[in-house]
């Protein structure tokens, strides 16, 4: 077994690999750029080597710099994580020449399956069902439009060396094909150093389901069930689960066996993933094979009890797999929510800055991983539910504009799907994150969406259910009254604190009134509070009551309450005349008034928002890649105005209405902050 390995990656996946290596008694080496000097993976590793500037193409994907780090530290093996150099055959070749083990597949398998065009051809030769498309190289945007027209719209434009949603666009007509080709080409070059593009038919109403395979160097290849990855935004997975709520056992077996056959055909070893598009009749079509560890691998680990990173290390060291296909069992259900530094209220655009507060929910061990003794540094085995958080950040740390916006992967396990979802709801409610825009509210909203809870979703879920973007959640009346009752009970505790009276409880009660009006989501909810030493009983005008118990004290940013025997978790902040409360995707200002205060509040005027309709504001921190218009130009609705690059993704800003550009305030190459004015209109 190896004594020391180098992790050629950063962030949460580097931390994830370090945890398993530490448990196996293997020393670790981290590499870091200027931007990651104080990163968590650097702190966790036994050694760390600086490899260059913040830009990935000058640090993390420069093979020579990784090789120099190996020479400095004497590491015997490299785990590439995902992204960066993980599917680069030249990197595997360089390691082999240096006598360093690659904790991944052999070079020929990376070349055969890591390249999307080659893998499609090999799958076709192996009689694997594939999506129709053009596998040859495409020279320019006009040729892309011609090919797309021949295939038939809609089409998917994809980077040959792509992954993680980078370099992918859907085109519905020739104009979008030309535009998407150029953007995909640019993103592919920046992210992978390879700008080759191919085009395939986009299957409507599809589900994205993938099979995890694991193979050793002695001829054994297994499949470890499937993962449902249909909740996607901009072709980037957001929520994954295992197993899929859609597959039956026969389809699972067929997909698994086909995946194994494909892997064996190219001499694959280590962990890998075969991705499929599955239609409503459970017909499945091969998309691609990812010759690396997937971002969403934890859900497979949670239902199988197999530590995939450990198995990758053991396979690279020449060991035989200790299990056969019949030993693989799927136990319970697992969910993964990807927490991104993206503001859902601004069209999910990237957000950067300092994490002024970062308090994930406590990790709890349960399920197959805990039973097999492979749980990563978490609590005792409860046997009921589990919470796991794979992360690469910490409170006070910075979210950089140079890398993927992922903050953490929050996972839950339960004996069935409903329990896993409910566990995720509570875990998301308990996740405290401040200082940047993030998608926690959106993740919570999905967990309560009936289409998701029913399991009846496709890759078009977000596009169909949130066509105008995410604007937060409006709680139904039943949930709203629970929040109002809780807010009233919390306000009573705060009022007692404010009286600064010591003595018996009955003295407090004489000073603090029992009648209140809670104003939330545009509703006034009059109620009465009857408190005792154990909690408070809140009575509504219609006679309904809620029993509230909690140990919350004023100033605490998280309130964990029990309302009528069920948990209610609220993130608590200050607001004029009340509180800012967040729960289940809802972000509300809740005001608690005395009856007289409520009467006066009705007379107050609402503050009008500033008119920004004649301004193009930068929606996220980023770099101006291209200005598509100049001062004096007349623009039409939907016309591209400016392209902003942030976190390795290009974002095209378009005109919302017809107008004339009067002033252009930014130039190509400028770095802009959020809400900085790019251009003005007459």
Q: Could you characterize the architecture of this molecule?
A:
Helices cover 29% and strands 32% of the residues. It has five domains: 4-103, Rossmann fold, CATH 3.40.50; 133-201, ATP-grasp fold, A domain (Dna Ligase, domain 1), CATH 3.30.1490; 207-465, 2-Layer Sandwich (D-amino Acid Aminotransferase, Chain A, domain 1), CATH 3.30.470; 477-601, Glycoprotein, Type 4 Pilin (2-Layer Sandwich), CATH 3.30.700.30; 615-681, OB fold (Dihydrolipoamide Acetyltransferase, E2P), CATH 2.40.50.100. By secondary structure, the protein is of the alpha+beta class. The termini are far apart. The strands form nine sheets. The protein has an eight-stranded antiparallel β-sheet with strand order 14-13-10-11-12-15-22-20. It is built from 19 helices and 39 strands.
Number of helices: 19
Average pLDDT number: 91
Oligomer: single chain
Helix percentage range: 25-40%
Write the layout of secondary structure elements.
Elements: E1 4-7, H1 11-23, E2 27-33, H2 40-44, E3 47-52, H3 63-73, E4 77-79, H4 89-98, E5 101-102, H5 107-114, H6 116-125, E6 133-134, H7 141-151, E7 155-163, E8 166-171, H8 174-192, E9 197-201, E10 207-215, E11 221-233, E12 236-242, H9 249-265, E13 270-278, E14 284-290, H10 297-304, H11 308-316, E15 333-340, E16 342-343, E17 349-350, E18 353-354, E19 357-359, H12 367-371, E20 386-391, E21 398-399, E22 406-414, H13 417-430, E23 432-434, H14 440-448, H15 450-453, H16 461-465, H17 477-499, H18 505-511, E24 515-520, E25 523-532, E26 535-540, E27 545-550, E28 558-563, E29 566-575, E30 578-583, E31 586-593, H19 595-601, E32 615-617, E33 622-627, E34 634-635, E35 640-646, E36 649-654, E37 659-664, E38 671-672, E39 677-681
Helix pairs in contact: 4-5, 5-6, 7-8, 13-14
